[in-house]
Amino acid sequence: MNLGSCSNKLIGMDWSKRDGVSDISSSLADFDDQCQFTVDFSRFVVVHGAGSFGHFQASKSGVHKGGLNQPLVKAGFVATRISVTTLNLEIVRALAREGIPSIGMPPYSCGWSTSERNVASADLSGVAKAIDSGFIPVLHGDAVLDDSLGCTILSGDVIIRHLAEHLRPEYVVFLTDVLGVYDRPPTDPNAVLLREIAVDEDGKWSVVKPTPQSMNKQVEITVAAHDTTGGMVTKISEAALIAKLGIDVYIVKAATSHSLKALKGELRHNIPDDWLGTVIRFSR
Amino acid sequence: MNLGSCSNKLIGMDWSKRDGVSDISSSLADFDDQCQFTVDFSRFVVVHGAGSFGHFQASKSGVHKGGLNQPLVKAGFVATRISVTTLNLEIVRALAREGIPSIGMPPYSCGWSTSERNVASADLSGVAKAIDSGFIPVLHGDAVLDDSLGCTILSGDVIIRHLAEHLRPEYVVFLTDVLGVYDRPPTDPNAVLLREIAVDEDGKWSVVKPTPQSMNKQVEITVAAHDTTGGMVTKISEAALIAKLGIDVYIVKAATSHSLKALKGELRHNIPDDWLGTVIRFSR
């Protein structure tokens, strides 16, 4: 992202006090008349998962299975939302401190709801309007109401796919803590990084690179017990659905040169041989 | 509020870790099979202002005056939203710890926007749905997009009035840090508490109790310099608009027996002489 800057100085947008000290004075000093401040950056939407937030509250109470009339589920719904919105706020603040005009848009409050776990409603116009106003909307996996189950957990992966379907971004990047998708758990020393996955008309996906001959193995995917939304399985199948729209998806390790290339859109026409990650593409 | 309880034990709904200790274990223990847990309380909406949060960020950057294309306003918009959503989360957590199934619904993300500072859109169905699902929606004064100004500050008082118009509650309680509305700043030792204010068909309001003869004075209202949304003036005029709908409004000091009476709805048919506060009513 090409961030707005003033004499290459960062314009902090989190003016909250930290340890009793507000950084508003230094921030305001940046806005003087001499300042050639331009807010000129790519149009972006950020969607984050719950990480260590939310999953525990959700799985302990069974929010993902519904049944809002049960006290435990109801309490878990409240507890899950508190946990994921706490994380959302921290992410919004971290982005704002870097001068990114981020706006938290918790899906529950943005009118997202599901029916049998499929997205039934979502205020996409609000997301579009925030982007048009020059903001970066920050959504997240959330506990939502479900028409048939009462409630469930809407994963960030499903949100990304729904946004992609309607907002038609140029590309989608999944940031994760490993280099990409492997043929088995990446902790396995023999795990092979899948460099390219092709999705066909029927939504079926197959590994293109490395070539199946060189692998000659079944892809094995596991899901962590606490993950209420399907872990890597959901991630890949949602990514495949996005790719089917003709939108390339990059699954890549956060905070690496590989993810930076993906985020900048540098991989759209040519993927260099030294790039490490997984690209999921529609094979016409 | 008649809270759900289990053997008179509180059911905490904030399972976040505090100082590294999660209270989820003790909370989960409350949900055993023996538990006669009932969630049976009044249908409520909570709207809070910004207090020491938000006002400073908003007034320093002029978010209330609009002009989102100016870097300072844009940064202030982001900073204001971070500040008010931080407060919202703290209030949601405080309520959840007391067993109240509260759900944060920040107006910006709930689709509230304005046109020339008047509410232009608001997702009231989301608020109604949350109430119907047994939750207590918690809204707040927020920075929002404005069709003509670009952006502005939507005060909690205006939100309450808009909700009252559409959800038609039995009564509305404004909790504040003084006993009610006075005829001049309550710090003035001669300030007189206005016990009853009548609103007529034209929306004009007049003091009924104490009787004008016994006061024989003009009511004087001041607004704090940092208050971007009009302070007590906005509060009273919005309260008058609510009263005009035939909905009684009580302005009362928080955390007193007087506010408890108001919140419980005990004042609807008869206001005891020892009750201290201001009631604003429609005089037909």
TrEMBL record, chains A, B:
The enzyme's E.C. designation: 2.7.4.26
Catalytic reaction list: isopentenyl phosphate + ATP = isopentenyl diphosphate + ADP
Residue span, Aspartate/glutamate/uridylate kinase domain: 21-252
Enzyme class: transferase
Segments forming a coiled coil: none
Pfam families given in the database record: AA_kinase (PF00696)
Claim: Transferase is one of the keywords in the record: yes
Keywords: ATP-binding, Isoprene biosynthesis, Kinase, Nucleotide-binding, Transferase
Signal sequence residues: none
Family the entry assigns: Belongs to the isopentenyl phosphate kinase family.
Stated name of the protein: Isopentenyl phosphate kinase
Native species: Hibiscus sabdariffa (roselle)
Lineage of producing organism: Eukaryota, Viridiplantae, Streptophyta, Embryophyta, Tracheophyta
